[in-house]
Amino acid sequence: MTGMRRIHYASGSVLTGDRTCKAVLRYARALAEASTADVVEIPVVTDAGSRAYAHFLIGPASQIFSTPVPDSPDEPLDVDVIEHLERATYRLQPSRPEWPDEMTDVPDLDWDFSFD
Description:
By secondary structure, the protein is of the alpha+beta class. Helices cover about 25% and strands about 30% of the residues. The chain is built from two helices and five strands, in the order E-E-H-E-E-E-H. The chain has helices at about 20-35, 80-90, and strands at about 5-10, 10-15, 40-45, 50-60, 65-70. It has a three-stranded antiparallel sheet. A two-stranded antiparallel sheet has the order 3-4. A hairpin with a 2-residue loop joins strand 1 (about 5-10) and strand 2 (about 10-15).
């Protein structure tokens, strides 16, 4: 079981899974380093407690950060979303497919970065 993290942005925040948050932050950094932006869709838990998808514009000017949510329910996991974000990050940073020292409190999913 993994937990949740709150992604803070502009004047608001959303609640999402640990691994989704980690993938978003990695991709945001890669986009910033490439001086480009993208809109991503991630699973979130709404204020009412239901599951939905949120859209984020992330890129060089993104100022986002995350905080852990103690005693949170299971994360809204969408492996396809995480895989999409990790692949997009890899395309921008092929020499950096692993981040062993980042967000070590959040487990990685195992990916095969030898894709086309």
